[in-house]
Amino acid sequence: MGLIVQKFGGSSVKDRDRIFNVARIVMNTRNAGNDVVVVVSAQGDTTDDLIAKAAEITSDPSHREMDMLLAAGEEISISLLTMALQELGVSAISLTGWQAGFNTDRAYSKARIKRLDTERVESELARNRVVVVAGFQGLNRSDDITTLGRGGSDTSAVALAAALHADRCQIFTDVEGVYTADPRKIPKATKLKEITFDEMLELASLGAQVLNNRSVELAKKYNVELEVISSINPVPGTVVKEETKVEGMLIKGVAKDTDVAVLTVKDVPDVPGMSFKIFSLLAQKNINVDIILQTTGRDGKKDMSFTVPLGDAESAVAALKNATHRIGGGDITVDKTCAKVSIVGAGMQSHSGVASTMFEALFNQNINIKMISTSEIKISVIIDEADADLRDLMGIPDNYKVLFIQGGATLQFAAVPWNLMKNGKAVYVETGAWSKKAIAEAKKYGEVIVAASSKDKNYSYIPDCSDLDIPEDADYVYICENETIHGVTWQKLPNTKGHILVSDQSSMFLSQPCNVSDYGMIYAGVQKNVGPAGMVIAIIREDLIREDLDPKMPIYMRYDTHAKNDSMYNTPNCWAIYCCGKVFKYLKSIGGLEVMHQRNIEKAKVIYDFLDSSKMFHGTVEPEFRSLMNIPFVTDSAELDAEVVAATKAAGYDNLKGHKSVGGLRASVYNAMPIEGAQALVDFLKKFEAEHTK
Questions:
Q1: Of 79, 100, 319, 372, which is least surrounded by CB within 10 A?
Q2: What is the CATH number of the domain that holds 100?
Q3: For 626-648, what is each residue's pLDDT tens digit?
Q4: Active site residue: 198, 257, 504, 641, which one?
Q5: The sheet that has 630-634: what strands, in order across it?
């Protein structure tokens, strides 16, 4: 006996006959021995009719009230379908989105699912009932009804399938599957038996109407097998899954999207940061940007063109014109006469000539090309894959969010207290330069209690934190788990006495296993062990993501901003995320963090064993607190230290000079450093010692 989630669109339930047709499909699936959850859209043109009714009242309705109005369409559908099932003798119950456990953010009309509590759905299934759920809707923290935007019912169905670990999610439409083109316009279009998630995501994102792109993202992220199937003709549909066996087919589909407008901002100053200024304005209005074209600079100016959904064009223009004094650009033009034509196929990556063939076809039809965009995969897919792999590596619980945030760890010195200081009080442990800097920054936002410090011995040890004096109303306890400069690391986490633990893991991130549940939040600048500089990964428990923050707080500093937008509030640091994702896959391929930890132990031991036996070189950290990542060491004099540093540079060893607060040398042996590198350094130091010892 399996569990099947079935989704039916508005055309499938538009009238009495269609409703009973759907009821019989559900009944047959049930009679085949399956549990069934059904997700239903609003009937036929109900949504359009409700929008028209709103237009009779006002030309500018609030998004909140529109969500309240439009949610009624799905409620009509679920009740009618449930009545039809009961009429056929099938035990069934209808649930609204919030009754089914859909909790969303507060972005009215474009809400995203934050959490799905399936207890009610599972309870009804246990009572042998078919559960009919209203798609497209949920409830936010204010107990307001929200809608998920275009294609939201598809997203609801896939989310339920993922949360319930369903065997399959069937999307019933008025076509028999996924075709190479729209069969209603191209009679010779071929139906595909299978298609990959990536290919389907590209098609959906580029205008294909069969599946919503957000639903495909979710399906890929949680490996939910989808089937696109006809609700009218009982024939096999198209299966969407991770890998397919279809070979020899370069192009899987052609998509056309007329729902686009091209905006051009003219005479933009050709200086760094202008793209950020423009696109962050649009991100604040939840306006998605697709293709971007930037002209070559001239006289210190350039033109920037990009596409947005047609319905967002006027809002985009208004947002940009209101900020022309900040942007510094000239006129803003809009072209609403364009269309986007796309070809999709995984085989394009390894075969030349595909693009030229497409351009030739457009030339033969006298169609001019204004903008060209190519991509291996969508940004959202990169993020989803990186998120899933990191969760797998670290065993991150479901109630934690993974955020990819632009900037370095230093920015989090301010973001942490600003977001987490609810009572205005926090406890910090001072163990080196970076915890000291974090303390100084946190004092700007509230009371900071330094409960323990190792400053007395130049941060050469971790103080005893088994019985810290922690005020009851302290919001969190903060540590820097590995101090890069001073080379100390925590071997045992502090006793927080029930308070939230926040850890800066920048210089040890993914170097060893980590029990995420021990922390309220972990953050790390990725440049030490994972990826290029310029990004932080934050892992934060969902209940710590607050919305009741100072309204003057910069929106990009808020963790809820990044959580609500799946780390895509503004244009993400795509290259950094992509590289991090590759490193996550590498770590998984070698056996995970346990294997990486053992490698780090072995190569650090090579250096520490030498230091412990050397008469010239000495480690600066008490042995029980030694870092596996950063190894500071000195000679008996500053003059000899300088001589060693000079010799290492001459021999081709870079960045071995110790920090001015410690002196001497420091070997940083992060994950990427092989044991051969550690051994080469030791061989050099042995040789130097032999040559300078009388």
A1: 372
A2: 3.40.1160.10
A3: 999 999 999 999 999 999 999 98
A4: 504
A5: 618-619, 630-634, 665-668
